[in-house]
């Protein structure tokens, strides 16, 4: 298979990747975008999005991502299914391998690979993953209607998911390892005002319990050492995310948490022509609209870079 040459390769298909594709396509750069492991990104695992400007009645995550994809394709972005399995950033043009075989040389790269949900790391949790253990209440909550479930975490995500689950389920246990919630005050208030959410402060999960059918409970340990078992059918993780940067370890500067480091106020990495956008470089804001804005910044930085590189080569 011959090596394909592209001017701009975008890796990732969340709001950052698609916005970068819309902008670079409209600038006649002819971007090629690889969707990656989770086409549409994390937003496809949510239901209603009410805070993305321009949708006063709200829009579902999958619908929003599909609209962004159509918008990118309308201007000629080449959106492809595939996973980047290797990358060589030693010299420009940079070489990437798709699905272990196809090779592409890219004059510039926009990395928008996002972040993924964290798990506790318990053996029992892994055993029941997909059979009661989930990191996405909005995707899987429906399966536990009128049953009892638990959510682990004390941040905005945990509170949001607990509130969502409370509208479907009978009883929701919110398992919080500290004696307080980290979530915003508004989110906390919503949790405390929901009668079927029981907040369990200073509890850690020791084991997820189950049988052949899936999860049946969880064994929790209080900070005092006392242990308790809760009967649940669903065990939801909401303990944060980690950036999808394994591919770039040792090749790009990453911070202590693994997020790509960029020059302040820009999308520029230390490597010329390599830009990062969205959650893969942003541990703080992590919103669809900030990721989209970040994708726009990367596209503009990339456009300027390619223009300057072209002038230099003349
Ligand atoms: P956070 O990092 O804010 O919270 C993670 C939570 O998980 C913390 O309570 C943390 O506990 C807990 N945790 C981490 N590891 C473990 C563990 N091993 N065992 C038990 N508990 C654990 O992540 P979020 O996903 O909640 O939020 C990320 C960002 O996204 C935040 O900035 C948030 O504000 C934002 N966000 C905003 C929303 C909105 O505005 N609508 C909705 C959702 C998220 P501890 O407190 O002890 O560290």
What is this structure's SSE topology?
Layout: E1 4-11, H1 15-26, E2 32-34, E3 48-49, E4 59-60, H2 61-74, E5 78-80, E6 84-88, E7 94-98, E8 102-111, E9 115-117, H3 123-127, E10 133-134, H4 137-140, E11 148-152, H5 156-166, E12 171-176, H6 185-192, E13 197-201, E14 203-211, E15 214-222, E16 227-231, E17 234-237, E18 241-243, E19 274-276, H7 288-313
Parallel strand pairs: 1-2, 1-8, 2-5, 8-19, 10-17, 11-12, 11-17, 12-13
Antiparallel strand pairs: 3-4, 6-7, 7-8, 9-18, 14-15, 15-16
Helix pairs in contact: 1-2, 1-7, 5-6
Structural write-up:
This protein is α/β, with parallel strands linked by helices and 314 residues long. 25% of the residues lie in helices and 29% in strands. Strands 1, 2, 5, 6, 7, 8 and 19 form a seven-stranded mixed β-sheet that branches. It has a five-stranded parallel β-sheet with strand order 10-17-11-12-13, with helices on one face. Helix 1 (15-26) runs parallel beside helix 2, helix 1 (15-26) packs parallel to helix 7 (288-313) and helix 5 (156-166) packs parallel to helix 6. The protein is elongated. The model has no long low-confidence stretch (mean pLDDT 95). The structure holds NADPH dihydro-nicotinamide-adenine-dinucleotide phosphate.
Task: Give a brief outline of the structure.
With 314 residues, this protein is of the alpha/beta class. 25% of the residues lie in helices and 29% in strands.
């Amino acid at each position: 298979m011959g090596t394909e040459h592209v001017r701009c390769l975008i890796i990732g298909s969340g709001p950052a990747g698609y916005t970068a594709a819309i902008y670079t396509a409209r600038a006649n750069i002819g971007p090629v975008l690889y969707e990656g492991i989770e086409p549409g990104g994390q937003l496809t695992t949510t239901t209603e999005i009410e805070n993305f400007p321009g949708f006063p009645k709200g829009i579902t995550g999958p619908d929003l991502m599909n609209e962004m994809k159509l918008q990118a394709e309308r201007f000629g972005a080449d959106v492809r299914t595939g996973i980047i399995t290797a990358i060589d950033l030693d010299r420009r043009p940079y070489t990437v391998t798709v699905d272990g075989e196809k090779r592409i040389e890219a004059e510039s790269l926009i990395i928008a690979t996002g972040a993924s949900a964290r798990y506790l790391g318990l053996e029992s949790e892994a055993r029941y993953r997909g059979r009661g253990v989930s990191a996405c209440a909005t995707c899987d909550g429906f399966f536990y209607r009128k049953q009892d479930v638990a959510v682990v975490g004390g941040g905005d995500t945990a509170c949001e998911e607990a509130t969502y689950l409370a509208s479907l389920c009978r009883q929701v246990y919110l398992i919080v390892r500290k004696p307080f919630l980290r979530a915003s005050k508004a989110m906390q208030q919503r949790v405390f005002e929901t009668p079927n959410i029981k907040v369990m402060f200073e509890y850690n999960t020791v084991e997820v319990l189950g049988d052949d059918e899936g999860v049946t409970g969880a064994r929790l340990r209080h900070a005092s050492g006392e242990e308790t078992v809760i009967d649940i059918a669903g065990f939801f993780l909401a303990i944060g995310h980690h950036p999808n940067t394994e591919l770039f370890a040792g090749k790009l500067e990453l911070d202590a948490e693994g997020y790509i480091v960029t020059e302040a106020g820009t999308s520029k990495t230390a490597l010329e022509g390599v830009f990062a956008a969205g959650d893969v470089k942003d541990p703080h804001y992590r919103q669809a609209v900030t990721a989209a804005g970040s994708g726009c910044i990367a596209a503009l930085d990339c456009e300027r870079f390619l223009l300057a590189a072209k002038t230099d080569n003349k």
